[in-house]
């Protein structure tokens, strides 16, 4: 039996499966404080004899095993989680090899192995929801540098079409992608949650502008084969024609890319991308595949 945790800013999804990724049980736990959430996670997994666990955590997160903050959630506005030793707390109760990475990385890996990026070597996965984060697939593997990429905090230019005077909701940066295009930013502008807006609300065109601008930046800097959007806000299907149209205008034919409808796509696995990727990585560590898991593995 293998286990997985997709720890997002709004909810935790915990699941167990067999080696063929047939999920036997899963649970959703609201993201409260560590004191509220962790005991529920431990209780869920205490019922199973796990051979491996894959964990994707919201960030910023320490994923470099050679640094002292490995396994920690670093500075975050989520109450109680800043500088919290998440991995250390888990391994105190769950005695199996653990693959530790970010929530967007497990989703990116899920899409690489079972979703929209199958057969590809270079991909960008971006989740747009409570926050915005991204995972990069390079040469068929999850990419990490000194830390993990923070694709949601790239700077963006305010929309010239809409004369946008909003400076964003990010507590760290004005005019970053997360501050300008996350779910909370839409709610701040409109006074209601994004899911409550009509499909033809002008807010979607503005949202598409910022996501397209980010896609242009990733295209020019990373040159992926595909850019995949997931997360709650990205579940709005009317967004994708708007993103592709704005992307084409902003890129202005500067570099060659695949056809826009094959290049800018919705996550094929939808909301299951993260838990699928975490289970796949759990299977790797359970099988002792150190090469595939790189330095993100904790062994008890």
Question: What would you say this structure looks like, in words?
Answer:
By secondary structure, this protein is of the alpha/beta class. The protein contains 10 helices and 13 strands. The protein has helices at residues 34-45, 86-91, 103-114, 177-181, 183-190, 202-222, 239-251, 260-263, 273-286, 290-293, and strands spanning 2-7, 11-17, 23-30, 52-57, 72-73, 84-85, 98-102, 123-128, 132-138, 141-142, 226-230, 264-266, 297-298. The strands form 3 sheets. It has a 6-stranded mixed β-sheet with strand order 3-2-1-4-7-13. Helix 3 packs across helix 9 (273-286) and helix 6 crosses helix 7. It starts with a strand and ends with a strand. 46% of the residues are buried.
Question: What's the structural domain tally?
Answer: 2
Helix content: 25-40%
CATH superfamily of the largest domain: ATPase, nucleotide binding domain
DSSP summary: helix tally: 10
**Unreliably modeled segments:** none
Please count the beta strands (DSSP E, at least 2 residues each). Answer: 13
Question: End-to-end distance, in Å?
Answer: 17 Å
EC number: 2.7.1.4
Family: Belongs to the ROK (NagC/XylR) family.
Protein name: fructokinase
Catalytic activity: D-fructose + ATP = D-fructose 6-phosphate + ADP + H(+)
């Amino acid at each position: 039996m293998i286990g997985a945790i997709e720890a997002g800013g709004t909810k935790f999804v915990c699941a167990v499966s067999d080696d063929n990724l047939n999920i036997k049980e899963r649970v959703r736990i609201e993201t409260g404080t560590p004191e509220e959430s962790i005991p529920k996670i431990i209780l869920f997994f205490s019922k199973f004899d796990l051979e491996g666990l894959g964990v994707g955590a919201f960030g910023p997160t320490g994923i470099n095993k050679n640094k002292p903050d490995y396994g920690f959630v670093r500075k975050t506005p989520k109450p109680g989680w800043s500088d919290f030793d998440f991995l250390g707390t888990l391994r105190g109760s769950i005695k199996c090899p653990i693959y530790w990475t970010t929530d967007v990385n497990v989703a990116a890996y899920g899409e690489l192995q079972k979703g929209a990026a199958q057969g590809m070597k270079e991909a960008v996965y971006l989740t747009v929801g409570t926050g915005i984060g991204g995972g990069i697939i390079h040469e068929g593997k999850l990419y990490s540098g000194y830390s993990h990429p923070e694709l949601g905090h790239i700077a963006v230019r305010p929309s010239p079409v809409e004369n946008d005077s909003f400076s964003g909701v990010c507590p760290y940066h004005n005019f970053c992608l997360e501050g300008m295009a996350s779910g909370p930013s839409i709610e701040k502008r409109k006074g209601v949650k994004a899911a409550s807006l009509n499909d033809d609300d002008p807010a979607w065109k503005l949202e598409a502008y910022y996501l397209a601008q980010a896609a242009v930046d990733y295209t020019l800097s990373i040159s992926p084969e595909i850019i995949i959007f997931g997360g709650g806000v990205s579940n709005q299907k009317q967004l994708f024609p708007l993103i592709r149209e704005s992307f084409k205008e902003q890129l202005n034919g500067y570099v060659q890319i695949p056809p826009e409808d094959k290049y800018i796509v919705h996550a094929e696995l939808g909301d299951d991308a993260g838990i699928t990727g975490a289970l796949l990585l759990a299977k790797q560590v359970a099988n002792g595949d150190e090469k595939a898991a790189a330095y993100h593995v904790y062994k008890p």
